[in-house]
Structures are given as C-alpha cells and as structure tokens.
Design brief:
Two copies of one chain form a homodimer.
Chain A lengths: L15 H23 L4 H8 L3 H13 L3 E2 L7 E2 L1 H23 L4 H11 L5 H12 L1
Antiparallel strand pairs in A: 1-2
The structure holds a DNA duplex.
Chain lengths: 137, 137
DNA sequence: GGCAAATTGTAGCAATGGCTACGGATGCTG
DNA sequence: CAGCATCCGTAGCCATTGCTACAATTTGCC
C-alpha cells in the first residue's frame, strides 16, 4: 500500500520549470488570440494583454523564441512556430473546456473567466476528460 | 459595455506576489498537517514534503516568519501563528472541497489529489461555493 | 563528557519574471 | 525628407525559489 511512491515535486507544481511552462502556454495562447483578432502581434500588445511592462514581454519572447515556440526579429511582429501553434491550440481548447465547465456548474461568466485562467494550467488530461464528459452529459 | 475595466493582472496570476502567497498557503497547510500527524514540524519534514532541499525550506520559513505566519528559532521546530493557523484552516477547507469535487465529477482519487494541489490556489470564493453546492446536491 | 550523526543555517550561484531609465528603430505626417 | 511619436531593446536593479558546498548546532549513544 505504498501511498507515496511519486515525489511530491509531482504534486506541488511551484517549480521554476512548471511556471516557465505556464508562461509559455499563456504567451503562445495570447499571441494566437491577438493575431486572430488584429492581424499581428507586437510586444506592446502582449504587454497590454498581460498588464506588464514591455521589457518583461521582450525578455520572455526572447526565451520562447529560443525554445522554438515563436519567431520574431527586432522591432518586428511576433508569430508562432509550428510547435508554438500546436501548444496554443491545445491551451485554447483546455481553456475553453475549463471555462465552459465552470459556467456549467453555476459560476458567473466573469468569475469563470478569471478562475479558468488560473486553473487551466493545473488540469490534467484525466480531469479535463471528466470536465468534458460532464459538459456533454 | 466596458468589458475590460479590470487590468489583466487580475486574470493572469503569474505574479511574484501571487506565487509568494501560494507558497505561503502550501507551507502553512503543510506545517499544520505535519504537526497534526507527528507532533512537530521540522525543516527537514517540509523539505521531504515538498521534495526540495532543506535550504529552500529554511529560506521560505524565514520569510513566512517575517510575515507573521509561523514561528521558529534556529534549530528548533516550526509552529504556526494565530494568523498562520487561520490561513492553514482555510487552505485545508479549500483543498478538501476541490478534492472532493474532482472525485465527484469522476476523477480518480490519485489524479484528483495531484490536480487539487494545483487548482486550489486559483479557485475564487464564488467558484468554491459552486463546487460546494454541487457536492451537497 | 565527548564523538558522530543528523539537522539546520549561511554563502553564493542560476533561472525566471517583475521594474525604471535610457537609447536606438521604425514609421507616420507635415 | 525631416522630425517626432511610438515601439522596442539594453542595462541594471530586486524578489522568489531552486541548487551545492560548507559551517554550525543539536542530539543521541557510548
């Protein structure tokens, strides 16, 4: 009855790596959304989107470019790589399922929007499946 | 129809302040749990609990002591302040509701345990109320 | 009491993500 | 096409949370 085989690093996601991945997901999702809405995505668009300074965006964009998630050149718009687009697609799906699910259990739309942003990164595929199943029921 | 009065810093919780608060909640909850289980809580207990080095724990404990959430002295056990105990109590309640809720919608216990750790910090009181209401239905 | 093991603290490094201040590019507009 | 506004990059600061390596304290055992 070994109940603790897995290290708690699996349970507790307050790790640099996990956070970096959350950031990556939020950014590619935002880039996709902004391009979809306005045709192109600039550093300042992301800065406004996340309500942070352009400097913070700039550094993160550079990191994500190094991770082959997005592409840009100095003073140029930002676009997604194939890999980035794929991540954005999954992130969006997850986001929408969580959002719809929260609304389905009676959370008001505005609160659901806020909470789903935080929750989406912590929902495993199994939990996501349970939410999806709940929605189609 | 101003749909974006609130800054996105409210929606996107990837902020130092928010993370620091998550850490605080996880730590006070862990301290309460460990004391409850074994009578006292030491730095190494927390290190094992979170699967991090004792150094990381030591520094965070020092910070949380400064925030009046817990009390300790060098080479001595850790206990909660009144404020820390209150935070631990609410964190535990939230944790349990989220956990029970996930199980209720069909997530297996192990996955629910993992996901609830991540989700609990992002659930507003409104969403928590919706979960509670779902459970008692 | 004293030694050894276990525990905890300190020093110092890295990565991530906040910021302000400043300077260089780009692009619009007269 | 020149100048100005906007956008973006760089330099350099801080906080948080990881780490290893080493020092200090406590504790248990002989």
């Amino acid at each position: 009855m070994q109940e603790d085989k897995k290290p708690n690093s699996v349970r507790f996601s307050r790790t640099r790596k996990h956070h970096a991945n959350e950031t990556a997901e939020d950014y590619v999702e935002a880039v996709a959304e902004i391009i979809d809405a306005s045709g192109e995505c600039r550093v300042l668009d992301l800065a406004k989107y996340f309500d942070v300074s352009h400097v913070t965006v700039s550094r993160i964009v550079k990191r994500l470019q190094g991770e082959d998630l997005l592409v840009t050149r100095p003073y140029r718009p930002i676009s997604l790589t194939k890999q980035g687009a794929k991540m954005a697609k999954y992130a969006k799906q997850r986001h929408e399922i969580v959002l719809d699910f929260l609304v389905a259990i009676g959370v008001d739309a505005q609160t659901a929007e806020i909470d789903s942003e935080g929750i989406e990164h912590h929902v495993s595929s199994k939990t996501l499946a349970a939410m999806k199943s709940f929605l189609t029921k």
